Amino acid sequence: MYLASTGDSGYNTIGGPSDLATVIGVGGTQLALSGSKYTETIWNGAAAGCSSPTVVGSPGVPKPSWQHDPDCTYRTDGDISSESGCSPPVAEYVSQYGGWTDVCGTSVASPFNAGIIGLAGNAAKLGSGEHFWKLKKKALKKDLHDITSGFDGSCGGEYLCTAGAKGSLGYKTYSGPGGWGTPNGIKAY
Question: Peptide bond before 17: cis, by omega within 30 degrees of 0?
Answer without folding.
Answer: yes
